[in-house]
Design goal:
Order of helices and strands: HEEEEEEEE
Structural class: alpha+beta
Shape: rod-shaped
Largest sheet: 5 strands, antiparallel
Mean pLDDT: 87
Strand content: 25-35%
Number of helices: 1
Radius of gyration: 27 Å
Helix content: 40-55%
Low-confidence stretches: none
Strand order of the largest sheet: 1-2-3-4-5
């Protein structure tokens, strides 16, 4: 009778240990997924913010010059430039955005297409030079 009780206790302990290991693995996997999703969302928001900021800066430009991965424009007082070098986007020589893998500027008719590529996604924004923006 004592041996049966001891065997029952050991089996219960083994089942509890297996369930504990499975729950721990699930918790670590969920935390890993949370970190991955946070990194993607953070990267997306950084790129989106940079595109909006560039578009707003170009709103007051009187003359815009486009090159491969460079924008030069003049406003009422100064000359400004945004350029891409070594996975970093610079605005007037200051770091605007780091850790990006591509910056493309294209002219489409009278408008400007801005494209920034991050680790896992690329975002584009059309800057309308003439007319209303919607």
């Amino acid at each position: 009778m004592k041996s049966f009780a001891m065997l029952e206790f050991l089996v219960g302990l083994m089942v509890f240990a297996i369930i504990s290991v499975i729950c721990t693995k699930l918790a670590f996997y969920a935390k890993k997924q949370e970190v991955v999703i946070f990194d993607l969302a953070y990267n997306f928001l950084e790129i989106q913010n940079a595109l909006i900021q560039i578009s707003h800066l170009l709103d007051n430009a009187s003359k815009i010059i486009l090159e491969d991965s460079k924008i030069i424009w003049h406003d009422e007082e100064n000359k400004h430039e945004i350029f891409f070098d070594n996975q970093t986007l610079f605005l007037d020589g200051f770091v605007m955005l780091e850790g990006i893998f591509g910056f493309e500027v294209r002219e489409i008719k009278e408008d400007i297409l801005l494209k920034i590529c991050g680790k896992k996604s690329c975002l584009m924004r059309m800057h309308l030079r003439y007319g209303d923006t919607y």
